[in-house]
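Students often ask why we bother encoding 3D structure as a string. The short answer is that it lets us treat folding as translation between two languages. Here is a chain of 81 residues written in the first language.
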Amino acid sequence: MDLSKDSIKKILLILFAGIAFHYGLQNFSTVASVFFGLMRLVLPFLVGGAIAFILNIPMSRIESLLLKKAPRMGRFCRPLA
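And here it is in the second language, the structure alphabet:
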């Protein structure tokens, strides 16, 4: 069996992942509290991104209608929409 540098790295990575997984299962309550704490920080950004994504569809339509009616207002169409 030939143990090259790449195969040793892969074995060590698998071993480290297994140890980390075992540690995570042994301290599940701590891992869960850290996960939910991070989610509490990230959730407002996710909700804001979803709202912006949904509102972009009607806003684009309103912007194009404003641009057709008043072509001189080119740079003000987006804020007005």
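Translate back mentally: The chain has a mean pLDDT of 90. Keep this in mind for the problem set.
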